[in-house]
Amino acid sequence: MFFRHTTNENHRVASLVNRNPANPYIQMLGRSQAKQLNARDVKSVEALPEGTPFEIIYKNLLLSQFASQGVKKQRKHLEAALKKAEQVGAKEIFLRQDNLTLESVINISEKINSQWVESLARACLDRINSRNALLNFRGEQLTHREIEVLKYLSTSKSIEQIGRTLHISKNTMKTHLRNIYRKLNVSDRNQAAEVAKEKLLV
């Protein structure tokens, strides 16, 4: 499970989600991948298992992303995730998070007396810088919406399914795809997905 998510095998995660509609943990994994978590999910996340170090890390990472809980609780959950991650040497699960989470790790590292966390914070900064530098293609930057679409291109979903998931009309999807292909200098979704993975955009 964590191997599939943290190594960014999106199509496998999508397949797991589709095959396990009754499993709350897997469904939460799918929603987090699609960045569709909301306040109603807090209790569901709190009910997730903590049987392994990675489950503890992932659960606390998810909880740290709920702004509705307040900054103190967010920081508490992030610290818990970092503490467990340090014990097992799990860095990559953090480096696969969005830039906002990476920035939170960097900020909190200043308050934690740990060489391991400091090392992770430096890696987070490097990852942010790499992403920002690689977001510019041919002088044009991908929009937030285009990046959302791009993340789904490496999954098994059809273009129509991606549009429905993101609540985007067919014509608007076509426009997004044309812009993505042009900015990435590719000709189809497979090439776009490969470039995105290579450049750590998804």
TrEMBL record:
GO molecular-function term, one example from the UniProt record: DNA binding
Start and end residues of each HTH luxR-type domain: 135-200
GO biological process: regulation of DNA-templated transcription
Listed InterPro entries: Sig_transdc_resp-reg_C-effctor, Tscrpt_reg_LuxR_C, WH-like_DNA-bd_sf
Keyword Hydrolase assigned: no
Keyword Transcription included in the entry's annotation: yes
Gene3D superfamilies named among the record's database cross-references: Winged helix-like DNA-binding domain superfamily/Winged helix DNA-binding domain
Alphabetized UniProt keyword annotations: DNA-binding, Transcription, Transcription regulation
Protein's UniProt name: Unannotated protein
Organism the protein comes from: freshwater metagenome
